[in-house]
Design a protein that fits this description.
Blueprint: H1 4-8, H2 14-21, E1 39-44, E2 47-51, E3 57-62, H3 65-68, H4 77-89, H5 101-113, E4 118-124, H6 127-144, E5 152-156, H7 165-169, E6 188-190, E7 197-199, E8 207-209, H8 212-229, E9 233-238, E10 242-243, E11 249-250, H9 254-266, E12 269-273, E13 297-300, E14 312-317, H10 318-325, H11 345-360, H12 363-378, E15 387-393, E16 396-401, H13 407-416, E17 419-420, E18 427-430, H14 438-456
Parallel strand pairs: 3-17, 5-6, 5-9, 9-12, 12-13
Antiparallel strand pairs: 1-2, 2-3, 4-14, 7-8, 10-11, 13-14, 15-16, 16-18
Helix pairs in contact: 4-11, 5-11, 6-10, 8-9, 12-14, 13-14
The structure holds 4'-deoxy-4'-aminopyridoxal-5'-phosphate.
The site of 4'-deoxy-4'-aminopyridoxal-5'-phosphate has 14 residues, from helix 6.
Length: 457
């Protein structure tokens, strides 16, 4: 039943809101006349209150954390206060020639959290833009190091890095919309790295295990590709350990170790896109830590602001920054990017508060609780005829079906069971806010399982 306090906030009639939206607004990857969206009438804690075009009302646990971002849930008092306090000082100032406390403090926190030697920070306004900056940085680095002509990248099939041009070019070439944009820069792609799954060890130290022969074959493919294309390459970009939007695929950490070795041997920059995986989602603060590998460049976003405002950051090693700063070309000494809303003070202030919460609330225990809850509550889905695989890594649970998901029907069925999900292709997945109680997580797994049974069995 909808919560009375939430309903009091409901605002204008949702059905007319949806009618005004339709034909006026584009939604992600959807045509103007696509399926009607649900109207959000309130969001509090881990719950969204939604209303459908037909007037049906739902109160649902947000199993998507608003696409990996709202890790502390909605209307968190500390995050609300951080935004309000900064708005009481100033909301935005340009970052060209100016600096401010929220940006400096956040950069200091990020450098403190990130593994050595990631020591320099560039703020961007979204994950995709931070990937663009990472690609530009790698090309500038090679030029500054006197290795001109190195401007291609090695990326992974099944990878996803964002929707701007450079980012799209390193997304999976088949699923990544390449055929719609023939002018994308051509990149080189390796096979998806071999799958890994969590072996339940001591509660504090689950291990990711995979097939050693498959890993060896993949490493041989990597070495051959770099032998062939190494002199054209500026760098390698991957989502460490968990490919998200490209298929929710967890892979062998040993592959990251091989990438680090090969990048060093060939003078390539290793870029980890931790935009989805960063800040604890996979069970490590950064997913690269599953392999004990530190990249030269790391992009973070999404959960950085606790899902409050759009902000991303690129961190790079002191060595890489030193090469760029020592460039023979005066223009090349700067990182050639400078968005209008760079280091937006509201976003930086709330990101600082979110990082404070991450440690003070004990993200490791929170993520462990979500992982254990998802494992238990999604386990019954494994015996459904429509289900091919159920897998959990950190606070991410995935149910893979044999056939493509009937997305509108499954979304609605899950809402009727009190859960908001946004399936894609064959996948129904959950990555709920870290603050979910054990009962909330149990409701997520049970709701997803019931919805799959209802729609696909
Ligand atoms: N990289 C990864 C791994 C992502 O999951 C995403 C967003 N889904 C992006 C980059 C792009 O981030 P944004 O949507 O903030 O541009």
């Amino acid at each position: 039943m909808p919560d009375a306090a939430l309903l009091a906030d409901a605002g204008p009639d949702a059905a007319s809101l949806i009618a005004r939206d339709r034909g006026l607004l584009w939604h992600p990857y959807a045509p103007l006349d696509g399926p009607a969206p649900y109207a959000v009438t309130a969001a509090e804690g881990v719950r969204l209150q939604l209303e459908a075009a037909d007037g049906a009302r739902f109160e649902a646990v947000d199993a998507m954390s608003s696409w990996w971002s709202a890790i502390h849930g909605y209307r968190h008092p500390a995050l609300d206060a951080a935004v309000r306090e900064q708005a009481g000082r100033f909301s935005h100032v340009m970052f060209g020639g100016l600096t401010h406390e929220p940006a400096v403090r956040l950069a200091e926190q990020l450098v403190e959290l990130a593994p050595e030697p990631l020591r320099h920070v560039f703020f961007a306004d979204s994950g995709s833009v931070s990937v663009e900056v990472a690609l530009k940085l790698a090309i500038q680095y090679q030029a500054a190091a006197g290795r001109r002509g190195r401007h291609a990248f090695l990326a992974l099939r099944g990878g996803y890095h964002g929707d701007t041009f450079g980012a799209m070019s390193v997304c999976d070439p088949v699923d990544g919309m390449h055929s719609a944009f023939p002018s994308l820069p051509a990149q080189h792609f390796l096979s998806r790295p071999p799958a890994a799954h969590l072996a339940e060890g001591p509660p504090d130290q689950p291990a990711l295990v995979s097939d050693a022969a498959e890993v060896a074959a993949w490493v041989a493919e990597l070495e051959a590709a770099v032998d062939l294309h190494g002199r054209e390459l500026a760098g390698i970009i991957v989502e460490p350990v968990l490919q998200g939007a490209g298929g929710m695929h967890a892979y062998a950490p040993e592959c990251l170790q091989a990438l680090r070795r090969v990048a060093d041997e060939h003078g390539l920059l290793l870029v980890f896109d931790e935009i989805a995986t960063g800040f604890g989602r996979t069970g490590r603060l950064f997913a690269g830590q599953w392999a004990g590998v530190v990249p030269d460049v790391m992009c973070v976003g999404k959960a950085l602001t606790g899902g409050y405002l759009t902000l991303a950051a690129l961190l790079c090693s002191a060595d890489v920054a030193a090469v760029i700063t020592a460039s023979a070309s005066e223009a090349g000494r700067a990182l050639l990017h400078g968005p209008t809303f760079m280091a937006n003070p509201l976003a930086c202030a709330v990101a600082s508060a979110s990082l404070d919460l991450l440690s003070s609330a004990g993200w490791q225990d929170q993520v462990r609780r979500v992982r254990q809850g998802l494992r238990a509550s999604l386990a019954p889905a494994a015996s459904l005829g429509a289900v091919r695989d159920v897998r959990v890594l950190g606070a991410v649970g995935v149910v893979e079906l044999n056939d493509p998901v009937d997305i509108p029907a499954l979304t609605r069925a899950a809402l009727e069971h009190g859960v908001w999900v946004r399936p894609f292709r064959h996948l129904v997945y959950a990555m709920p806010p870290y603050i979910c109680s054990a009962a909330d997580v149990a409701a997520v797994g049970a709701g997803i399982t019931a919805a799959i049974r209802q729609v696909h069995c």
